[in-house]
Design goal:
The complex is a heterodimer of chains A (115) and B (273). With 115 residues, chain A is α+β, with helices and mostly antiparallel strands. Chain A has helices at residues 6-13, 42-62, 100-114, and strands spanning 18-25, 31-35, 68-75, 78-84, 88-94. In chain B, β1 (162-166) and β2 form a beta hairpin. Chain B has 273 residues and is an alpha+beta fold. Chain B is elongated and about 70 Å long. The chains are: A alpha+beta (115), B alpha+beta (273). β3 (68-75) of chain A pairs antiparallel with β3 of chain B, so a sheet runs across the interface.
Chain lengths: 115, 273
C-alpha cells in the first residue's frame, strides 16, 4: 500500500549517495514513512531530525527571520538534509558523495507538492 | 601631529628628564611610528638607565619591529632590574612564541602566572600556546588582551552579516545579532539554540557519520550557519552562529564561518590578531 510519501521517498532513494529518506511528523518527531537501509533505526533518526529542525525554527522565529526552509547538518562522513512544513518534515540522509544541491531542489519540489 | 603627542613632546622639550617619554613612546608604538618611538625610548633610557619600564617600553618597540633579539636583550635588562617584572616575562614569552619555541613560551607564561595569580589573560595565553596549530599574536599588546565581546567579529563581517558565540547553555559570549527591526535578538536566538551542539552530536553519532561540522538553514530573510565553538575554554560545547543575507553563496558562507570560529578561538585564548 502506498501513501502520498511513497513516491517522494523512492525518488530520493534513487539519488546518488542517499542512504535513507523519511517523512516525519513535525509535531512529535515520529516517522510517518521511511526508506531505510538494513540496520538503520528510523525512529531515532526521525526524532533527532525533528528536534533539530524545531530548534532551527525557534531560532529563526526568535530572530525575526521568518519561516524556515532547507536545513543541512554536515558531518565528517555524511549529511542530513531536511525541509518541513507545519505537519511534515522530509528528511534525507546522505553520504559525502550525495549531491546536496539536487537533494535541496527535490526537497523543495516535494514540499510544494505536499502543501 | 596629534594633540596628545604634541603635548607630551612639548613637555619633554621643556623638561628632558620628565617620565612623560614613557606614554609618548607607547602612543607612537601603538600608532605604528616605531622609529620615532624607538628614538623617544632611547633618549629616555639615557636619562633613566635604571628605569625598568623604560627598558620594557623599548623592548616592546623592538618586538613590534621584529627585532626579537634586541627585544629579548632589553627584557633581560628589565628582569635584572626588577626580577618580578611580569610585563617583561610576558613579552619574552611573546617573542619565544613568535620564534616557534612553544615550550619556552609556556615556561615563561607559567612563571608570569605564578607572579600574577588569577590573571585570566595569562591563563588564556597559556591555553593558546598549548593548542596545536595556534596562530601567533601579532603584537606584544595582544598577549592576554581581552577586547570588547561585542566587537570580536566586527572586522570580519559586512553590515548585513552577524555572528554570535554561544556557550553550551546558549548564553552569548561574544558578537551581536540585531533583527530587521533593530532590536537585539542575540540572547533570544541563543536561548532557542541552547543544546543544539549536543543534538547535532547525538544525531551524527547515531548515524555513524563522524563529528558534526556545520548546520546551515535557510529562512525567509537570512541564511544561518552554525559551527561547533572552539573545543577548549568557556565556549566548549557551544556554537558559533553566523547570519547572512539569503543570497549569500554557501561556499562564501562556509569560509566566513570558519574565519569566525578561528577568531572566536583567538579571542577566547587572548591572542586575537
Amino acid at each position: 500500500m502506498s501513501s502520498p510519501f511513497t513516491a517522494i521517498l523512492d525518488a530520493f532513494s534513487r539519488q546518488r549517495g542517499v542512504q535513507a529518506s523519511l517523512a516525519v511528523s513535525a509535531r512529535d518527531g515520529i516517522a510517518i514513512e521511511s526508506n531505510l537501509q538494513i540496520g538503520q533505526d528510523g525512529t531515532r533518526v526521525a526524532a533527532l531530525a525533528a528536534s533539530l529542525y524545531a530548534k532551527a525554527r525557534k531560532a529563526a522565529t526568535a530572530a525575526g527571520l521568518g519561516s524556515t526552509g532547507f536545513l543541512q547538518l554536515e558531518a565528517e562522513a555524511g549529511r542530513l538534509c531536511m525541509l518541513g512544513g507545519d505537519d511534515v518534515i522530509l528528511v534525507v540522509v546522505g553520504d559525502p558523495q550525495a549531491n546536496v544541491g539536487l537533494i535541496r531542489m527535490e526537497l523543495i519540489r516535494a514540499a510544494e507538492a505536499l502543501a | 601631529m596629534p594633540d596628545v603627542v604634541r603635548l607630551w613632546s612639548d613637555e619633554l622639550a621643556r623638561d628632558p628628564s620628565s617620565l612623560v617619554f614613557l606614554p609618548l613612546a607607547e602612543t607612537l608604538r601603538v600608532r605604528g611610528q616605531l622609529e620615532m618611538a624607538r628614538k623617544v625610548a632611547l633618549r629616555g633610557i639615557e636619562r633613566h638607565p635604571t628605569n625598568a619600564d623604560a627598558h620594557d617600553q623599548l623592548a616592546r618597540i623592538h618586538a613590534d619591529a621584529g627585532a626579537f633579539q634586541q627585544a629579548l636583550d632589553e627584557w633581560t635588562t628589565v628582569l635584572r632590574l626588577v626580577p618580578s617584572h611580569v610585563g617583561a616575562i610576558k613579552g619574552m614569552a611573546f617573542v619565544r612564541f613568535q620564534q616557534g619555541d612553544r615550550d619556552e613560551a609556556e615556561r615563561l607564561l607559567i612563571a608570569a602566572q605564578d607572579l600574577e595569580v588569577g590573571d585570566a589573560g595569562i591563563t588564556a595565553a597559556i591555553t593558546a600556546v598549548r593548542r596545536p596549530g595556534a596562530s601567533t599574536p601579532a603584537s606584544t599588546a595582544q598577549v592576554g588582551q581581552d577586547p570588547e565581546p561585542g566587537t570580536v567579529f566586527s572586522d570580519l563581517l559586512r553590515d548585513d552579516q552577524m555572528a554570535i558565540l554561544l556557550d553550551t547553555e546558549g548564553l552569548v559570549l561574544a558578537g551581536t545579532n540585531t533583527g530587521n527591526d533593530g532590536r537585539d535578538v542575540a540572547a533570544a536566538m541563543g536561548a532557542a539554540l541552547s543544546g543544539v551542539s549536543d543534538e547535532a552530536h547525538r544525531t551524527t553519532k547515531h548515524l555513524q557519520i563522524g563529528g558534526w561540522r556545520a548546520i546551515v538553514f535557510e529562512t525567509e530573510s537570512a541564511i544561518v550557519s552554525i559551527a561547533p565553538a572552539p573545543a577548549d575554554g568557556r565556549a566548549a560545547g557551544g556554537v558559533l552562529v553566523l547570519s547572512a543575507p539569503p543570497a549569500t553563496a554557501l561556499g562564501m558562507l562556509r569560509r566566513l564561518l570558519d574565519r569566525c570560529v578561528e577568531r572566536a578561538g583567538q579571542w577566547l585564548a587572548g591572542t586575537m590578531s
